[in-house]
Amino acid sequence: MNVLIVESDPNLGRLWKRHMQRQGWDVRLVESQEQAILALHGSEFEIILLDLVLEQGSALAVADFASYRRPRARIIFVTNTSFFSDGSIFAHSPNACAYVQSATPPEDLTAMVEHYAALG
Predict the structure, then answer these.
(1) pLDDT by residue (tens digit) across 94-108?
(2) Residue scoring higher pLDDT (115 or 84)
(3) Residue 77 pairs with which residues in a beta bridge?
(4) Do 79 and 101 contact (CB within 8 A), yes or no?
(5) Right CATH number for 2-119 from 3.40.50.2300, 3.40.50.790, 3.50.50.60, 3.30.160.150?
(6) Residue ranges of the domains in the chain?
(7) Can you tell me the distance from the alpha carbon of 40 to that of 28, in angstroms, rounded to the nearest whole number?
(8) pTM exceeds cut of 0.85
């Protein structure tokens, strides 16, 4: 399985990446909109783990590009804010399959990635 993690906090991103690599998955970690777009140009991903608030760029721009370039890729949005806590993220991103807090334990995120990839 190929997973793209788009996370501005490199420590958090590396933590998630290590947990997913233990499953034998190919995981690519990027920190910005620009890096995510480049990754989506060159590779197929079943799942995108996408921080809703990026330091550089827009998560919604990444999600929009993914829905065009990789329409089968599912997006799990993570955040440490209350943006879209009403569930409206699902109206903005057709690829969205989950919305969770950044503090979700890495093993739970890994299980969600596995679950949603199996559905795709």
Answers:
(1) 888 888 898 999 999
(2) 115
(3) 50, 99
(4) yes
(5) 3.40.50.2300
(6) 2-119
(7) 11
(8) yes
